[in-house]
Prior knowledge:
With 239 residues, the protein is α/β, with parallel strands linked by helices. It has eight helices and four strands. It has one domain (9-233). The chain has helices spanning 29-37, 55-61, 80-93, 101-109, 137-141, 158-168, 190-199, 202-215; strands at 9-14, 17-22, 72-77, 150-153. The model is unreliable at 1-6, 42-64 and 177-182 (pLDDT under 50).
Amino acid sequence: MKQNYRNCWHRCTYADRPFTYVEIPKAGCTTIKHQMSKYFKGKYEFPPVSASSELTRYMDYSRGPILENEDLVFTVVRDPIARMYSGIKMLCKIKHPSVPAEMLELYEIKSDYSFVNMFLDEPWMFNLFKDTHLTLDEYCIGNYLERIDFACSIEKIDSLEKTLLKECGAHLIFGHNNKADKKFDLVLTDREIKIILEKFGLEASYSLNDKLSRRFIHVIKYNYNNWKIESKDRTIHYG
């Protein structure tokens, strides 16, 4: 699979304390980068790579820059299925050229996320993961997990605010605190979950999430079976 290289390392210095954000798209990245820009010094540090690079080359380059030991390296994660559906809905909203007309038409009719389920079996669905922001978690951070000093789930992003304040003195307010989308009324069948995990590679993303949750107390261990339960009956709402 060919995929665009994500400019996934964003390095800033605040009060002479360097910190680096490793971006996972559709996990609060726009808000985080906007806030970081207020404290931005220097330039982004990442090696350029062609958009047509093969996946193996992409993964080699996604190792990021050589960082000094004093850098605080952090990332923010999100439930993989929530990321996928939110990302596809955004592609429809902006009328991305990868989205076929029939999906755009159904998106205009339906106000929830269920319209995506109608197309899970379509061969072109896999193409939505090429050259878009739907880069899988492991392609963003999988090669350098040991270099990450702090990680949290988007539902617990207030812990990142506290960490950056303590470590760098930076007063960043991300605005996602405890705002899991309770209107995310997506309900999936066993068959749909099986397709999503196997066809779109999200099983590896959940496995990566499990590793992070064991290491970082502010990372929720997401459970894809949660999507089988009606939204009103869920004890945990993923945003």
